[in-house]
Amino acid sequence: MPNIVPFRLVEAEDYVRIPPTEFGKPLEDIALQQLRSKYEGRVLREVGYVVAVLTAKVGREGRIVFGDGGTYHRAVFTMLAYMPLDGEIIEGVVENVREMGMLVRIGPILGFINKIHVMDEPNIFFDASTKSYIGERSKRKISVGDIVRARITGVSFTTPREGTDLLLRVTLTMRMPGLGKMEWIKEKKPAVKKT
Description:
This protein has helices at 27-39, 182-188, and strands spanning 7-18, 43-44, 48-58, 63-64, 71-82, 89-97, 101-106, 109-114, 124-127, 132-135, 141-143, 147-158, 167-173, 180-181. By secondary structure, it is mainly β. It folds into two domains: 7-82, Dna Ligase, domain 1; 89-188, CATH 2.40.50.140. Strands 1, 2, 3, 4 and 5 form a five-stranded antiparallel β-sheet that branches. A five-stranded mixed β-barrel has the order 6-7-8-13-12. Strand 10 and strand 11 form a beta hairpin. The longest helix is centred in the first third of the chain and has 13 residues, at 27-39. It is found in: Cytoplasm. It catalyses: RNA(n) + a ribonucleoside 5'-triphosphate = RNA(n+1) + diphosphate. Pfam families: S1 (PF00575), SHS2_Rpb7-N (PF03876). Belongs to the eukaryotic RPB7/RPC8 RNA polymerase subunit family.
């Protein structure tokens, strides 16, 4: 299997507006500030979740638009983006546990695990007072703050309503060997005999 890294550097191009109040200042600094404001924290279908805008090269010659005192400059910039991959094994921290499932922080995004995919047990109970799940047979408990290993089972892009930003939805499962709360995984590892 090829080594695929979900974090990647992406080169992009856009135009930045330099307002008259910023004339005389370094173009790259102003462009970086504007590009970071525009792109960081957004989801782009071809790129994924934009974590950061790292660098920008700005054309020295700008264009003037009638009725606008600013200048527009072509900028080529590099973004650090995260694109979760279907089937990828991730480690994350449980951020929220609810009756229907739990949210797991995977770097810059949240993934969702449906209650039935939390443990490989027929009955899992939700304890609202401690915001945790408890397995009926094993009595294993998983709560907010626990570190877990899960597999991504779905990645989709949605727009909640017209005029809003694109959202990245990630679904997860922990019902497979080698997955679950990190403490459980460590318990299952056989001891290595020293000779």
